[in-house]
Amino acid sequence: MVSILEVNDVKKIYTTRFGGNKVEALKSVSFVVEKGEYVAIMGESGSGKTTLLNILASLDKPTSGIIKLDGKSLSDIKEKNISEFRRDNLGFVFQDFNLLDTFSIEDNIYLPLVLAGKTYSEMNSRLIPIAEHLGIIDILKKYPYEVSGGQKQRAAVARALITNPKLVLADEPTGALDSKSTDELLHLFNEINQKGQTILMVTHSVKAASHANRVLFIKDGEVFNQIYRGDKSREIFYQNISDTLTVLVTGGGIK
Amino acid sequence: MKRGLYIKLAVQSIRKNKRLYIPYILTCIYMIMIFYITSFLVNSGILSEIRGGFTMREFLVLGRFIIAIFSLIFLFYANSFLIKRRKKEFGLYNILGMGKRNIAKVLLNESIIIAVISLIGGLFTGVLLSGFSKLGMLKILKADIEYSTVFDISFSAVAESIVFFTIIFLLILINALRQVHFSKPIELLRSENTGEKPPKANWVISVIGLIILAVAYYMALSVKNPIKAVTLFFVAVVLVIISTYMLFISGSVALCKILQKNKKYYYKINHFVSVSSMLYRMKRNGASLASICILCTMVLVMISSVAGLYVGLENGVRDVMGRDISIVIGTNNIKYLNEKVEKTIKNVLSEILSEENMTAKDIIEYNVISFEGYINGQEILDGNDIINNINIDGVDKISSFYLVPISDYNKIMGKDEKLNRGEVLLYNKGFDYNYDKIKFSNIGEFKIKKKVDSFVSSLSTYSPQFLSSFIFISDIEFEECWNSTGEMINDGIPDEQYYQNTSKLFKLYQFDLDCSDEKEIYIEDKIHSLYCDNFYDYNDDLDSGYFLYSSTSSVAREKEEILEIYGSLLFLGIILGMVFIFAMILIMYYKQITEGYEDQSRFSIMQKVGMTKKEIKKSINSQILTVFFLPILIAGVHLIFSFNMIGKVLSLISLASLGFLGVLTLICFLIFAVFYILIYIITSKAYYSIVKSSDNGD
User: Fold this and answer.
1) How far, in Å, CA of B683 to CA of B677, rounded?
2) Of B279, B609, B698, the CB nearest to A111
């Protein structure tokens, strides 16, 4: 298998604005994501999940360490090309959807392609199969305020997928959804993953994590543990994750 | 809770919201300053000492009234904007356990602080600048008064300002309290986060707006008659205002929709974000942008036309009058304008001049028969025929006709023209008359031997729009007319109508004097009073129904009278223009801030989706540039289209040529644009700093 994302000894230290206190958000994080994998990252609030995701998304820079996406080191990309790189290689799904309310659902999905300078016909031909798959064909002309949370999130997924990204980064994608929409979305992620899309998801939800192939646990800025699903049924994997989380939270060092 | 706490809270919240409050306080200071200065000038004793002071005072009182009303409305607007932005804060206070009563106390303390700062600041700057504005006013009135006490304080103006603005602040406070009182805490907290429907284009209103604007523009462009221009001017203004609002509010949305439908255009980096955000921006801001546009247009029209009147004054008066002093001796019967009268006139005149130790230069005298004529193609209706044919539409076809004997013409112009019986020379202004004969319905017809292109004066009013024609006629025929017209005039026309519509016979004496304007007016007055005495005696001797009259005029007096009005108008225009411009700055500033907060989250999303900072900046730029410069651009267009009409209206009272007015308008526009760009630079800085702060947030 080919590794698509390599994270090697990444460290992030924030300096507070006043007084110069240093906060270590990431101590030393290393892991590898293979092509076609579906990885969930779990951890408590303040464990550094969001920091890690921002760094992977190239929205933030690590203090030290190397991140390689498809063999290319993020730190080698020049500042002015970073947005372009992000646009072409990464797809994002956020907890609060991050759809622009001034655009129709269709235009929201087109946004990254318009930025990439694609023509309308090309964008449209890319959109149709994705929209069909995600079941949002009927709401394309509607505006975000007119549709449900689940529909919004599916639109956001469509926006993430339309650029054919190497990696989809999802930040608590089910956080703002009801249980039915959550199930639908997770099912969707599985389908996309089965078609070969690599997904990296940060989540609190054991249920969401249990849909992944692998779960990484982060504590105090380090990878604390990781478990693979392997051939386990989802129920057993769910139980495993839950157990690991209990250990994580109660603070025991036992693996 | 202790009182100290409220004050502390009030100070803190002003400080925390300084981005909103500093401009507000500055506006208050500015308004108070202008109000004080105007009040100071109204109360200043100097106005009773200088010429034109009375008119200026009247205008300033009017100006102070406008400023007062405007301050009230505008500060109300600004404050309700502040309250709206702070509702979240109040909601938080409320949830944290502060009752509405407590919030009211905080608001009261805030108002007191703001009122005190504004009054002190406004009065201080007002006192500081009142001396300069007084100098400016004297300069505009061209008063040669030694003015040494630059810094004096008018306590009555101080008192007026304090009383008036305290009332305004009180009203504003009551309004703010009302807003807080009628709101629910949860709503207060949430008030900023309501999803917005995409605006729908109202095609009907847009099209109607376009049609109305087209009608108004057509009106302005096609009007030829100055009298009609005056009546149509207000219609056009109302139409333009209505259509501007319609077009800004729904026309702009419709335009964005059209652009969106054009997929090739819409799905481009530069257009995609801009067009869709403009849609929302215009929906929210359409009304205020339209207001700004109309304010701009008004300020520009007001200042440029008044400046046109004021500056044009110098050039034209002399052209019309011919000589410094003019004396007219008129009658309705020739037999009273005899040698005895003529002699008296000359004696009196030389007496006065020798008393004053002056000599008259370039003396000219000529006889004139004047009457009005309605130009109906080749035929000119005179005498009674005018009354039967005149209506508003025909006003621009009425010309004053002046019959002058050819010998007078030759003497004055240094020519040697000879005319046979039935032949005339024609000098006409303001209309074409390309016939070889001139036909009058009563006086008869004459062959036009030649058209000449100048005479010593044009006798008529200053307006280039009013038509006037000189007809130089052989001496014999002039005498015949002179003798017969005396009777013709009164035939069938009741005495009361005499002044309104018919002919006059008069003798004109004109000469130049080498002296100051004051002296010139003094001499004119002296001549006038002596003549009045003399003719009063004469009139006792005349048969009933007949009279002799004299009138005098001088270039200096005409100039002074016009100066009074136009100078005062100009000064008022400048003061009001300054008020409006500042108001615009504040509206713009608040607009930018509001949008900044709204755009903050939007742009952080775009950055996550892969928009570069450069692209974001470009998009922001194109949007605020459009929002910002659209009003002034449209104002410019309004101005261009209104130009013909304004020129026509001004031509009724002004001496300025249209080209000159154009240059002036352009200068005003450019000065205004510079101001505008400055505002832009200041406010867009505020905007960027808000939008950028989202970068640090993550």
Assistant:
1) 10
2) B609
Burial class of B335 by CB neighbour count within 10 A (0 to 12, 13 to 18, 19+): exposed
Cβ of B612 under 8 Å from any chain A Cβ? yes
Residues 130-149 of A with CB under 8 A from B: 143-145
Handedness of CA B48, B50, B55, B60 (dihedral sign): negative
pLDDT on residue B391 = 62
Chain A interface includes B200 (CB < 8 A): no
Which of B263, B605, B615 has the CB atom closest to A98's CB atom? B605
CB pairs under 8 A between A and B: 76
- Single out the residue of B525, B519, B380, B355 nearest to residue B440, CA to CA: B380
- List B511's β-bridge partners, or say none: B325
Contact A120 B267 (CB under 8 A): yes
Residue B460 is predicted with a pLDDT of 52
The verdict on a CB contact (< 8 Å) between A110 and B267 is: yes
Rg from Cα positions in chain A: 18
DSSP output for chain A: --EEEEEEEEEEEEE-TTTT-EEEEEEEEEEEEETT-EEEEEE-TTSSHHHHHHHHTTSS--SEEEEEETTEEGGGS-GGGHHHHHHHHEEEE-TT----TTS-HHHHHHHHHHHTT--HHHHHHHHHHHHHHHT-GGGTTS-GGGS-HHHHHHHHHHHHHTT--SEEEEESTTTTS-HHHHHHHHHHHHHHHHTT--EEEE-S-HHHHTTSSEEEEEETTEEEEEEE-TT--HHHHHHHHHHHHHHHHHT----
Best residue in B197, B609, B614 to probe A by mutation, most A CBs within 10 Å?
B609
Identify which of A59, A98, A114 has the shortest CB distance to residue B267: A114
Q: What is the CA radius of gyration of chain B?
A: 33
Please tell me whether the interface predicted TM-score (ipTM) of this complex is above 0.85.
no
What average pLDDT does range B263-286 have in this prediction?
82
Average pLDDT taken over every residue of chain B: 79
Q: Answer yes or no: are the C-beta atoms of A65 and A74 closer than 8 Å.
A: no
Which residues of A are less than 8 Å from B615 in CB distance?
Answer: 83, 115
A103 touches chain B (CB under 8 A): yes
Q: Is the pLDDT of residue B3 over 70?
A: no
